[in-house]
Amino acid sequence: MTAQSPAQHAPGADAATTPWWRDAVVYQVYPRSFADADGDGMGDLPGITAHLPHLRDLGVDALWLSPFFTSPQRDGGYDVADYCDVDPRFGSLADADELIASAHAMGLKVIVDIVPNHSSSEHELFQQALAAGPGSPERDMYVFADGRGEHGELPPNNWTSIFHGEAWTRITEADGTPGQWYLHIFDTSQPDWNWQNPRVHALFRDVLRFWLDRGADGFRVDVAHGMVKPEGLPDAAVNAEGLLDIPEGEVPIYFDNDGVLEIYREWRPILDSYEGERMMVLEAWIPEHRLPLYIGPEEAHQSFNFGFLQATWGVETMRAAIEKPLALADAVGAPTTWVLSNHDVIRHATRYGFPPGYRFGEGLGRAETPDAALGLARARAATLLMLSLPGAAYLYQGEELGLPEVAEIPDALREDPAHLRAGVPGRDGCRVPLPWRADAPAYGFSPTGESWLPQPEEFGALAADAQEGVPGSTLEMYRAAIALRREHGLGRPDAPVEFLEDLPEGLLGLVRGEVVVLVNTSEQELPLPAGPDGLDLADAEVLVGSAEPVPGRLPADAAVWLRRR
Ligand code: GLC
């Protein structure tokens, strides 16, 4: 690991010199499902621009846009056919410019999703690779290999796809004969780039510059641990079968190879050469001890910490999910990040509606019945806990409305390639278009009432306009908490997290400056305990709570922020 620069090690830094990404609240927009301006039932960039005031009023610092580039949409846009253009379903480059300019005018930063592990099979360079023969420079842009077996009829190795099934597909050569195989860690429509080839490096340097020139403040790097494959493409001793079926503590052979780190060392100077604090956040599912290799002044700025998202409800589990990344943050010299939901996982308002330890599949099946009220109560409490912590917090669109995962999508309408390949419910349930207005067609998502996935009736009561100005609504709780987080500098890493010890069973407590955070994970209402230094917390000012306040007490499955007097 390289030495830490003083600029990246924060303690004592003041707000003026602290790079924005260190303590930002970032809001993930999934463009297909955010807001549809042209009425085709698919969200678009003008729809996002029109709803930027929602993000401004929520108080977030930045938005991260999931891919909106030219794409056949076989994996919701994570199958990119042209990295430097906008898919006509989402608008045009002019619409992207307008979105970035409007966001900047409101003081919001914009993070663009970059997908460097694979392209779409419709990418021009993949089409050229298919047309050119084996051994050609065109083919060398992707991972092609001869098959095993007498006639090359067996895949080059035993790797399986994260979306189930084999990770290789055999092509038919231009002369009509069965030919080589190409690697796709994800869907067949997502061929992996060959990062051993310097031309692939050059291509992505240009893509970064293209979006930096257009004003992007940073990148979320998709499958950030995936690009470089082990030399010789050996068989895997441990194989992945689906997103979740990776044995604990194991990393599939095609992930987390050291060559990936070189890519970040190549990209960092490009970002640093631009004005402002341009950043990269990695989607890297790697073991914790590997994180310090990825993050640093010469590598990436930050990485998603998925441990917090995976922690089950309870004092020990949640406390461990906070302490571990905080300890690692010191080791990497940059604050950690916090995430509870994104476009790949079951929404947290639904996850918490199952007992701790419940074994989730890929997506929510129709036969699974969470306790919705309990799930929402705990989700709101977990959100308050998350927003009190130092570092960057990443929100996923709709969580500020308390949206649940949607189970009742007809199979014929599901689009997740994992569903199509393996029949699992998949990730469509967290991607249902947002409800903006309770009384409008498609709940205000689209002017025509079209919606690429059907919205359930319960979305009506959760619509943004039904919650706006309503005390205690999830939307107002998020707004209040984000404003208080900024006012009290809770995201800043210089005030330590001090846990309160010897609390009644089921109570998690921590102190951040003058704010005391309490989470009641038990099933009973509990009296407020003594605070730090024996302070009587019953006398403290309630800044924000996830449940209806009860004087001197904390309801079950609830959290509260108190100000010490
Ligand atoms: C990432 C994305 C996910 C996508 C996959 C393949 O995990 O978050 O949505 O399917 O990469 O690009």
Automatic annotation (TrEMBL):
It comes from the Bacteria. InterPro entries: GH, GH13_cat_dom, O16G_dom_2. Residues 28-431 form the Glycosyl hydrolase family 13 catalytic domain. GO terms for biological process: oligosaccharide catabolic process. CDD domains: AmyAc_OligoGlu_TS. SUPFAM superfamilies: (Trans)glycosidases. GO terms for molecular function: alpha-amylase activity. Coiled coil: none annotated. Belongs to the glycosyl hydrolase 13 family. PANTHER family: ALPHA-AMYLASE FAMILY MEMBER, NEUTRAL AND BASIC AMINO ACID TRANSPORT PROTEIN RBAT. This is Alpha-amylase. It comes from Brachybacterium saurashtrense.
